[in-house]
Design a protein that fits this description.
The chain is of the alpha+beta class. Helices cover about 20% and strands about 45% of the residues. The chain is elongated, with a radius of gyration of 16 Å.
Length: about 100
């Protein structure tokens, strides 16, 4: 699926997964939702847990903004979500200028 998208401009992320019936097993059917993320608008960063996210996100945002300041670009924290299949937190930094 990623081959259908320019990897420099977009990323495909799994946004939702659910099992259609019963307990999960190796032959379970699943319903999934994918979302296309425009890399010209968003920078994604993954954190190992919510605690790590809460500790590091403001520093990471400051570092990101510092790295692109000379280009006149600024980012803000848009949202964060749990990635169930990885058991990690995905943060979205959105370009605002």
């Amino acid at each position: 699926m990623n081959a259908l998208v320019d990897p420099d401009k977009a990323e495909i992320v799994l946004s939702d997964i659910s099992y259609t019936a019963g307990a999960p097993s190796s032959d379970s059917k699943v319903d999934v939702t994918y979302r296309r993320i425009n890399k010209e608008t968003y920078v994604l960063k993954y954190y190992e847990s919510w605690d790590v996210y809460n500790e590091q996100v403001k520093n990471d945002l400051s570092a990101l903004n510092e790295s692109v300041k000379d280009q006149g670009i600024e980012y803000r924290i848009d949202r964060a979500e749990l990635v169930p299949e990885d058991n990690r937190v995905r943060a979205y930094f959105e370009k605002v200028t």
